[in-house]
């Protein structure tokens, strides 16, 4: 920190008055009217401003630059890139923005690698590409990225995001939806940033009894249902504690631009270990835009409009969206609903520019009672959120500080998870219903009841960020500094877990039963971060080396983490470029990690029933304790990236190779519990009609590896590359071609030793026997190779675009290797005994050594292709018709593979064809 402050002081003291040259321009539209509140990025300095009410903008130019590069974008207009040689900068350039239209000569309907992004390998997706994808949510947009498989629309399944190395093999197919510990950490470490504000999931506590079920089995599941497209669906979870947000919650209605960072993020972004998705929305005068999409039982609609307010009151933009989906329209048992509204008001006055955003969104996953389901199962998962954010920017433009920006954000919501299930446990049923520690008499209840699982959370997230930027000329190099501080809070004041012990859904699960747990008095998590980053160019002869070098320091859960980050690009000449990057990142534990709730372990000591509730007898022991996760450290990642870029008149190509290491990830580990309990005799007293009991003087031993504890134990390594090659539009066929190829190799080990039962009963000399054997953690390694082929045929004269895409899944493998040699055993007296090499060579412990590594291998049995087609036709620039088909040729490979353990694996990776039809009207 001392070095950071010294650097800042040098910057301020050395910023003496130098000859400052400015560029002052004006932005107009097709009708030569000023475009108000267009976003103008001065790429050289990474500085942004908004055009004024007369369309004007102004920048102080950096010295020692070869050219001035600008990017201008505005809602409903085609993004424009301009480069002026320093020797020929217009005095007052007038820049015309053209309405987005398929009749333009140049359009971009695909995600592209951007050389002006915030990371070397940034991928940008503009409004035209989002429209062409007919996205119901951010899920559809992210599936178009390199390394991601296009999927048919499925609004009835949760969808989170994973990047490099965040996949696992299931059914012989790479899956990215977070289920494993590694995937949960990968998803949690991806920041989704909307209008400079991170959308936080840190206050999400929709999990019950983490100690009983760990990450996945502590979430409430919805019941099975029939999907008219995917067939019979198994139970699913719809809450996202311990991971990133559900992408279905983010509509694409008023998104102007998306930048995806899979590599090294700039130092200004905190809480990032595995990537970032940066979403820009804008307010400004725009026509009514009404869109409607339909796919099977799913419909999505949206309306947006921007108004220019009178006088100096700025511009305001309204947008609303609604999505509804029935898994099977014939029975309407499973449905999904999402609705959202947003208001964005931008105002500029004097040197101040202010943007106020109000957002409300709601989502409801519901399963009604199926008349054919004897369990009468129902479920409902809702998530409602209201957020308010404000961005205030003050243009100082002095030799000391160029601008100051203050961002404030607060969001509050209500999350409710509910599931009911008809139970039949016989005429009467014993329950553990107290939250005390000790021996006591339990209760009997009627064994036929409806069990309810309920979690009510009220997440509250807030952030405050102050930043500034300055320019420091130092010889022939100008350093563009950005520095700031941010503060975030997370809290959850919900009712928490509402559990009726007399109607348990799961009873005695690993000797544990659920009790109520309130979130109302939980502490508030607070994190602080500081950063400074320097953007500068260095001339190396005729070559230019561009650098973004920064460092941030975060204090997360009381732990400080220093995170240097570097992105550099060497422009060798007009054809070749080379990139290199290095960065550290960290992610704080969430409230669900820090405060998992008390643990209750219950053991039966005496049980007798007479068939009636009053006279039956139940004696048990309960141990209640609260896990202390206050020492959880932030998870961390380190990443190196190297790239080569080439451009000529025939094609453009780039390849980015990377190495990523994650450690201190959040993991679960089972704890050994050993209890010495008194033995009891009990008898029925005929006079009182009650059971009585007394200690026998003997003891019984109970326990084992029971409850889960949270630790910083997950770690993994990932290597890979992303290779992109594309051609310009070929004039004879009006078609451009692009190919993205991604390879990823990931390895990690399970956390904690692997428990196994001995092959046969093994007695020990002391009269006990071996109950469980423990081996070293299982080693995993996954590899995947896939390509995305895209052709875009654009007939500008008639406003027509045809996009053909093919996902080529070349190879996917997963190897799981178990250890030969045991590390310890557990006997029937719950004694945990470590094994040495000497013991393993003696009888009977030598029989615990496995005869093979018991390795299992899951291999994609064949290369398979999924072909998709998108068609878009524009009529008079204000009416569009869209068609998008998934698996248009109905290619559905099928193979049954016999695994080593005798299990049959059914490989059928492609679903049946799916068609989305949509329209967009502007007026």
TrEMBL record:
Q: Which domain of life is it from?
A: Bacteria
Q: Which organism is it from?
A: Sphingobacterium arenae
Tell me yes or no: is Membrane among this UniProt entry's keywords.
yes
Lipid bilayer topology: Multi-pass membrane protein
Q: Domain named TonB-dependent receptor-like beta-barrel: which ranges? A: 344-748
Q: Which Pfam families match?
A: CarbopepD_reg_2, Plug, TonB_dep_Rec_b-barrel
Q: Which PANTHER family match?
A: HEMOGLOBIN AND HEMOGLOBIN-HAPTOGLOBIN-BINDING PROTEIN 1-RELATED, TONB-DEPENDENT OUTER MEMBRANE RECEPTOR
**Hey, which family's this protein in?**
Belongs to the TonB-dependent receptor family.
Occurrences of domain TonB-dependent receptor plug (ranges): 120-271
Any idea which UniProt keywords this protein has? Cell outer membrane, Membrane, Receptor, Signal, TonB box, Transmembrane, Transmembrane beta strand, Transport
Enumerate the SUPFAM superfamilies for this protein: Carboxypeptidase regulatory domain-like (SSF49464), Porins (SSF56935)
Q: What is this protein called?
A: TonB-dependent receptor
């Amino acid at each position: 920190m001392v070095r950071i402050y010294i650097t800042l002081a040098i910057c301020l003291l050395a910023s003496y008055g130098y000859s400052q040259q400015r560029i002052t321009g004006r932005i107009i539209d097709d009708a030569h009217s000023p475009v108000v509140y267009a976003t103008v990025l001065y790429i050289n300095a990474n500085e942004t401003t908004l055009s004024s009410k007369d369309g004007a903008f102004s920048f102080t130019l950096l010295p020692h630059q070869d050219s001035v590069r600008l990017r201008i974008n505005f809602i409903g207009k085609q993004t424009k890139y301009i480069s002026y040689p320093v020797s020929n900068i217009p005095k007052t350039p007038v820049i015309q923005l053209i309405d987005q239209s398929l009749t333009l000569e140049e359009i971009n309907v695909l995600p592209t690698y951007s050389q002006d992004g915030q990371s070397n390998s940034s991928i940008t997706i503009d409004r035209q590409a989002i429209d062409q994808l007919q996205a119901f949510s951010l899920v559809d947009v992210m599936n178009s990225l390199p390394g991601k498989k296009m999927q048919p629309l499925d609004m009835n399944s949760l969808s989170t995001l994973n990047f490099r190395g965040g996949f696992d093999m299931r059914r012989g197919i790479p899956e990215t939806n977070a289920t494993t510990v590694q995937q949960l950490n990968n998803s949690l470490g991806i920041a989704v940033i909307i209008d400079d504000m991170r959308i936080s999931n840190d206050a999400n506590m929709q999990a019950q009894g983490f100690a009983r079920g760990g990450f996945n089995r502590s979430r409430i599941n919805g019941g099975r249902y029939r999907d008219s497209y995917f067939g019979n669906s198994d139970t699913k979870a719809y809450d996202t504690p311990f991971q990133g947000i559900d992408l279905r919650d983010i509509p694409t209605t008023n998104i102007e631009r998306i930048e995806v960072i899979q590599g090294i993020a700039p130092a200004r972004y905190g809480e990032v270990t595995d990537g970032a998705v940066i979403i820009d929305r804008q307010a400004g005068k725009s026509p009514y835009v009404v869109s409607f999409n339909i796919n099977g039982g799913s419909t999505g609609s949206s309306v947006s409009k921007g108004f220019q307010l009178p006088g100096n009151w700025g511009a305001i933009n309204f947008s609303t969206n609604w999505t509804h989906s029935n898994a099977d329209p014939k029975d309407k048992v499973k449905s999904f609903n999402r609705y959202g509204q947003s208001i964005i008001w931008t105002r500029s006055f004097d040197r101040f520019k202010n943007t106020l955003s109000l957002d409300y969104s709601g989502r409801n996953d519901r399963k009604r009672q199926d008349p054919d389901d004897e369990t009468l199962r129902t479920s409902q998962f809702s998530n409602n959120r209201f957020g308010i954010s404000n961005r205030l920017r003050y243009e100082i433009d002095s030799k000391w500080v160029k601008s100051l920006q203050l961002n404030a954000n607060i969001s509050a919501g209500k999350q409710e998870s509910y599931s009911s299930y008809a139970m039949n446990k016989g005429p009467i049923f014993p329950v553990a219903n107290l939250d005390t520690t000790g021996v006591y008499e339990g209760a009997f209840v009627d064994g036929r009841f409806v069990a309810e699982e309920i979690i009510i959370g009220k997440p509250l997230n807030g952030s405050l960020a102050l930043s500034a930027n300055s320019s420091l000329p130092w010889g022939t190099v100008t350093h563009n500094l950005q520095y700031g501080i941010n503060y975030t809070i997370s809290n959850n004041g919900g009712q928490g877990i509402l559990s009726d012990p007399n109607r348990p859904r799961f009873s005695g699960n690993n000797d544990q039963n659920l009790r109520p747990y309130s979130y109302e008095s939980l502490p508030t998590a607070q994190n602080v971060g500081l950063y400074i980053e320097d953007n500068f160019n260095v001339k190396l002869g005729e070559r230019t080396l561009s650098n973004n070098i920064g460092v941030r320091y975060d204090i997360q859960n009381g732990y400080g983490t220093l995170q240097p980050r570097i992105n550099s690009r060497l422009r060798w000449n007009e054809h070749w470029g080379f990139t290199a990057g290095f960065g550290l990142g960290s992610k704080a534990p969430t409230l669900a990690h820090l405060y998992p709730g008390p643990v209750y372990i219950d053991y039966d000591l005496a049980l007798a029933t007479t068939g009636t509730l009053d006279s039956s007898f139940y004696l048990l022991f309960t141990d209640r304790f609260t896990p202390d996760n206050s020492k959880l450290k932030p998870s961390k990642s380190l990443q190196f990236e190297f790239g080569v870029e080439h451009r000529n008149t025939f094609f453009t190509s780039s390849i980015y190779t990377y190495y990523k290491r994650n450690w201190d990830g959040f993991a679960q580990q089972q704890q050994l519990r050993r209890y010495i309990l008194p033995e009891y005799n009990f008898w029925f007293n005929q006079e009182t009609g009650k059971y009585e009991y007394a200690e026998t003087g003997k003891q019984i031993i109970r326990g084992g590896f029971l409850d889960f504890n949270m630790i910083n134990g997950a770690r993994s390594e990932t290597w890979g590359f992303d290779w992109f090659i594309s051609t310009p539009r070929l004039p004879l066929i009006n078609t451009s071609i692009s190919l993205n190829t991604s390879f990823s190799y990931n390895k990690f080990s399970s956390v904690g030793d692997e428990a196994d039962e001995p092959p046969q009963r093994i007695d020990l000399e002391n009269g006990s026997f071996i109950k469980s054997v423990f081996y070293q953690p299982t080693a995993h390694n996954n590899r995947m190779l896939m390509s995305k082929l895209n052709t875009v045929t654009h007939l500008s004269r008639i406003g027509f675009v045809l996009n053909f895409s093919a996902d080529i899944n070349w190879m996917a493998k997963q190897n799981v290797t178990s250890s030969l040699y045991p590390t310890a055993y557990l006997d029937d007296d719950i004694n945990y005994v470590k094994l040495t090499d000497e013991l393993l060579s003696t009888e009977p412990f030598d029989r615990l050594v496995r005869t093979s590594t018991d390795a299992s291998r899951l291999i994609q049995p064949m290369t398979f292709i999924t072909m998709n087609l998108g068609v878009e036709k524009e009529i008079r620039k204000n009416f569009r018709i869209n068609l998008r088909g998934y698996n248009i040729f109905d290619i559905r490979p099928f193979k049954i593979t016999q695994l080593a353990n005798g299990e049959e694996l059914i490989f059928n990776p492609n679903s049946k064809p799916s068609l989305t039809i949509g329209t967009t009207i502007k007026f």
